[in-house]
Amino acid sequence: MPAVCFTLQVEPSLLEEYAAAHAAVWPEMLEALSGCGWRDYRLFLRDDGLLVGTLQTDDLASAQAAMERTDVNDRWQRHMARFFPALPDSRPDRGFVVLDEIFHLETQLEEAGLKGASS
Fold first, then answer.
1. Is the domain 3-111 a CATH 1.20.120.450 member?
2. What is the pTM of this model?
3. 3, 66, 84, 92: which could form a disulfide with 36 (CB 3.0–4.6 Å)?
4. What gap in Å lies between CA 66 and CA 39, rounded to an integer?
5. Exposed, middle or buried: residue 2 (CB in 10 Å: 0-12, 13-18, 19+)?
6. What's the pLDDT tens digit per position in 20-36?
7. Where are the domains of the chain?
């Protein structure tokens, strides 16, 4: 399953509140993400507000489109908007920047015919 990595910028003065919101994500939102194909989804937050997200999904565009069709996503995005004042419409789900993967250890080990530590 392909991996995706993205970045966003959280308003630095709201980092504690942002982290607290993610310590108890609404169960309906969790179910929607899982049901729409978001797997192993993680968020990492630096003290200057840099947010890095990673997930696995078969197709990011399809997973995002599926989330757009859920009622809970709209409510969650409106709830989170104040944390992202730099985004044109303050919706993190529409404003994140996807990074290009340039290295993956397991792929290169496999291509080189080498065994990894877990083998």
1. no
2. 0.90
3. 66
4. 14
5. exposed
6. 999 999 999 999 999 99
7. 3-111
Quote the Cα angle for 109-110-111, to 5°.
95
Q: What distance lies between CA 6 and its chain's CA centroid?
A: 6
- Structure token digits, residue 35: 């049901």
Structure confidence by residue, pLDDT tens digits, 56-114:
999 999 999 999 999 999 999 999 999 999 898 778 898 999 999 999 999 999 999 99
The torsion of the CA quartet 72, 74, 76, 81, rounded to 10 degrees, works out to 180
Of 39, 48, 35, nearest in space to 7 by CA: 48
Residue 92 CB neighbours (<10 A): 20
